[in-house]
Design goal:
By secondary structure, the protein is an alpha+beta fold. The chain contains 8 helices and 7 strands, in the order ββαβββββααααααα.
Length: 251
């Protein structure tokens, strides 16, 4: 396939960016989207130009690094798929593809298509963990958990933290990400001890980072590559209301 790429180029966080048009030729339909970008960068390097910066790591759809906005959609046109697992057979010869970074104040652009998502790390550091000294690794069957609860916790835990929910939301809200982490730990007995302080601290950090409010449009869940449910946001809201109503923290 021969394609036209409209790629966002930005030299640094405080530099002005713009869309630059590139042509790529002889792209195999079996290539992944990132492999196609590798071809583009090889062409740019051979021409003595600066390659396009983009984030990637495992390229197996599990690390959440490959955060790209493709033709106006988080991770591209295929539902339930990360950018690295999106294949070029989803496009046609002669197509024009617009590639942009995540758009959110809390995700500043590092360079080109690479954004700083450390805001998510700080939210997790605020409370997305269980601070229990467990000693040695306990047996998996030591604490019995009903299968329905275990399944719900596992589904919430599948969030890869890619930020597609933020990019898809008109308010740049991080509620789906935060709710998945809160729900995962609130459902499990190991997380009950810090249940109230966890949700208070994580929501406070989310607001501090500058993410927008949730308006229940549902675009976050629609674009999530691993199918995190909106039910987690409902659970987060319940957890937060209970925590605030019974908390000793008057701040």
């Amino acid at each position: 396939m021969n394609l036209t790429l409209n790629v966002w180029r930005q030299a640094g966080r405080h530099a002005e960016g713009k869309i630059v048009e590139y042509k790529v030729k002889d792209i195999s339909p079996e290539m992944s989207f990132l492999e196609m970008l590798d071809v583009l960068n090889e062409d740019l390097l051979h021409a003595g130009q600066d390659p396009v910066a983009f984030d990637h790591d495992c390229r197996e759809g599990i690390c959440g690094s490959c955060d790209l906005f493709i033709n106006g959609r988080s991770h591209g046109p295929e539902k339930g798929t990360t950018t690295c697992q999106l294949h070029m057979r989803k496009f046609s010869d002669g197509d024009t593809i617009t590639i942009e970074p995540w758009r959110a104040n809390a995700f500043p652009v590092n360079k080109d298509l690479s954004v700083d998502r450390s805001a998510f790390d700080r939210i997790i550091q605020a409370g997305g963990y269980v601070s229990v000294n467990t000693g040695g690794v306990p047996d998996g069957n030591d604490i019995t958990i009903p299968k329905e609860i275990a399944d719900r916790a596992f589904e919430a835990a599948t969030c890869i933290g890619c930020g597609a929910c933020v990019a898809a939301c008109k308010n740049a809200s991080a509620m789906l990400f935060v709710s998945a982490k809160v729900s995962q730990l609130a459902l499990l007995p190991q997380g009950h001890a810090e249940r109230k302080t966890r949700v208070e601290n994580m929501v406070a950090q989310m607001d501090k980072e500058g993410f927008g409010a949730c308006s229940n449009i549902g675009s976050c869940a629609a674009e999530c590559p691993v199918g995190i449910s909106l039910e987690n946001i409902a659970m987060l809201n319940r957890e937060f209301l209970v925590a605030k109503a019974t908390s000793n923290n008057l701040a």
